[in-house]
Design a protein that fits this description.
This protein is mostly helical. Helix content is 61%, strand content 0%. The protein has one domain: 434 Repressor (Amino-terminal Domain), CATH 1.10.260.
């Protein structure tokens, strides 16, 4: 589920994989492997992306459909 969420979050902000790779300080090709499921996304990167997208880890993981961050 998190693969689709990663792509949807990125596309909702009209960003390219390169833009997100820059946020994570990695190459676009490496990020592509995470988004396509060919490699597992490290937990540390999931935290960075949750903060970047201003959402919760639960949303990224597909445990909730609420995009709002916990208060």
């Amino acid at each position: 589920m998190y693969l689709k969420r990663l792509r949807d979050l990125r596309e909702d902000k009209d960003l390219k994989q390169k833009d997100i790779a820059d946020v994570l300080n990695i190459k676009q090709q490496q990020y592509s492997l995470y988004e396509t499921g060919k490699r597992d996304l490290p937990f540390e990167f999931a935290i960075v992306l949750a903060k970047f997208y201003n959402t919760s880890l639960d949303y990224i993981a597909g445990l909730t459909n609420n995009k709002e961050k916990y208060k």
